[in-house]
Design a protein that fits this description.
Shape: globular
Strand order of the largest sheet: 14-15-16-13-12-17-18
Oligomer: single chain
Helix content: 25-40%
Number of helices: 15
Radius of gyration: 23 Å
Bound molecules: NADPH dihydro-nicotinamide-adenine-dinucleotide phosphate
Mean pLDDT: 95
């Protein structure tokens, strides 16, 4: 029974607000027992396979192919065969296919959202309200460019590159697929895409959409598997590799491709600074800090994982942040109330645990709000570290989990210097009421994206990408088309 309190003569008010579970139904998704590789518009039976799990429960979901080098080459050949007719098709015709895919994603959005949360562990409200709508938006946006390439790149005779090999990570499976496939197809390329080992299911469901849209066979090919499949694609007869993932694998790919003439774009890790000045709207900034680091369990390359607070307001901000953290609901990704879902895999959980242990050993102070974590599956409570020094591993390395390191500064110059003191350069956030200070900071922060008084905002029209060890090349906007066209990258 919920406790009620009586205030004077007013109506009794609840004193403990709790949420009843509001699980999204799984019925909308029908999983197959076994999936093949999608090659030339057909399902190819793979020689080897593995089981993909739900990270929230460790329940096996389906068996999927572990594509070998020979199978990858079949996919590349199918893409090669499809290339010339696809590239010769009028831009307005290519656009129709992309519009069709976008509309089908919208029509089937609930199915995609449930499957994304089931296979990846992210809260349903995020896959429903962020991942899937943005995926459709990317197809809509690039459909609009397909017949306007000559206007987009005037006097440069834009031509497609050929076959693009695309390798994506597990943090935004369908969204990363859209970031890669939509511009490539709009520019007239054909693709072979490899989803991450732990999250192949929405890419496989997407093959159904490709068929429904009656895309010519071979224009999109999907090969599942682990890093070996990715490496085979890098070595395959492709004209370009587009990669999103860790800096280590990105560097290995760059080394492998050096001197081959294949084009490459790399979207790698980050260790973003989220900077709060004393004149910022503090409550709003606290929401931005929470969104910056606990969105998608912190499995976000541009996550605001280093919080810099001006010394005069540091105590207030940290107190408010801790209070806000106690209201985060951690649990079943399919529950519509959940704010923080499951960690994507056992390996990722171990990596987070290792770095958090290092933070404790190095002397940082840890805070985790009280929360009961499910017994099965991979879970980590939202965490904040204070008393962090710049040299600590938790302030230097990408944790890729719900773990925030708080540091302080006194002057804007000091904030810039500390924020830029990282091998990465993907994103940053600035919280202040002064427009001039936003511009001053944005000019000096060495980051591909700088958000002001907001965080983790994405839009298909806006380029995204990094400096330094965060990679090179841009995705999104006109910039995202250029690396798929001859002479434009
Ligand atoms: P990886 O870089 O290993 O994975 C990204 C993609 O590359 C996956 O599809 C992966 O396959 C594939 N891959 C792995 N090895 C090779 C290879 N030698 N050649 C070609 N492709 C390969 O990232 P992880 O998934 O292992 O995550 C490790 C760390 O990377 C995280 O903790 C995080 O710090 C960072 N990361 C950054 C991301 C970003 O958006 N910038 C996204 C994901 C991770 P498979 O899935 O089978 O390994």
């Amino acid at each position: 029974m919920t406790e009620l309190s009586r205030r004077g003569n007013h109506v009794p008010a609840r004193t403990d607000w709790t949420y009843a579970p509001a699980p999204e139904s799984r019925d909308v998704v029908s999983l197959r027992e076994r999936y093949g590789l999608f090659v030339g518009g057909e399902w190819l039976d793979p020689g080897e396979s593995y089981v993909t799990l739900s990270p929230a429960t460790e329940e096996p979901l389906a068996e999927v192919g572990q594509a070998t080098a020979a199978e990858v080459e079949l996919a590349v050949s199918a893409a090669r065969e499809a290339f010339t007719p696809w590239a010769k098709l009028a831009g307005s015709e290519r656009a129709k296919y992309l519009f069709r895919i976008a509309r089908l994603l919208q029509e089937r959005s609930r199915e995609f959202a449930v499957l994304e949360s089931l296979n990846g562990g992210k809260p349903i409200k995020e896959s429903r309200d962020v991942d899937i709508p943005l995926a459709a938006a990317h197809f809509f946006y690039y459909a609009g460019w397909a017949d306007k390439l000559e206007y987009a790149f005037p006097n440069r005779q834009p031509r497609p590159l050929g076959v693009a090999g695309q390798i994506i990570p597990w943090n935004f499976p369908l969204l990363m697929l859209s970031w890669k496939i939509a511009p490539a197809l709009a520019a007239g390329n054909t693709v072979v895409l490899k989803p991450a080992e732990t999250t192949p299911l929405t890419a496989l469901l997407f093959c159904d959409v490709v068929r429904q849209a009656e895309l010519p066979p071979g224009v999109i090919n999907i090969v599942t598997g682990d890093g070996r499949t990715g490496a085979a694609l890098v070595d395959g007869e492709v004209d370009k590799i587009a990669f999103t993932g860790s800096t280590d694998v990105g560097k290995a790919i760059a080394r492998r491709l050096a001197g081959t003439g294949k084009k490459v774009t790399l979207e790698l890790g980050g260790k973003a600074a989220n900077i709060v000045f004393e004149d910022a709207a503090i409550d709003q900034a606290v929401e931005g800090i929470v969104n910056g680091i606990y969105f998608n369990q912190g499995h976000v390359c541009c996550a605001g994982s280093r919080l810099f607070v001006q010394e005069s307001v540091a105590e207030d901000v940290v107190d408010k942040l801790k209070r806000r953290m106690t209201t985060l609901r951690v649990g079943d990704p399919l529950d519509k109330n959940t704010d923080v879902g499951a960690i994507n895999s056992k390996a990722q959980l171990e990596k987070i645990e290792e770095l958090v242990a290092a933070g404790r050993e190095e002397g940082a102070e840890i805070y985790q709000p009280p929360c009961v974590l499910p017994e099965k599956g991979y879970w980590f409570a939202p965490t904040v570290f204070t008393n962090v020094a710049q040299s600590y591993r938790i302030a230097q390395e990408e944790i890729f989990g719900p773990v925030l390191s708080v540091l302080t500064f006194r002057t804007p110059e000091e904030a810039v210097e500390k924020a830029n003191n990282t091998p990465y350069g993907l994103s940053a956030g600035v919280w202040t009421e002064k427009g001039s200070r936003i511009l001053w900071m944005a000019e000096r922060l060495r980051a591909g994206v700088v958000w002001a008084n907001t965080y983790n905002r994405f839009d298909p029209t806006s380029p995204f990408g990094g400096y330094k060890e965060s990679g090179y090349g841009r995705e999104g906007g006109l910039h995202g088309l250029a690396p798929y066209l001859n002479g434009e990258s």
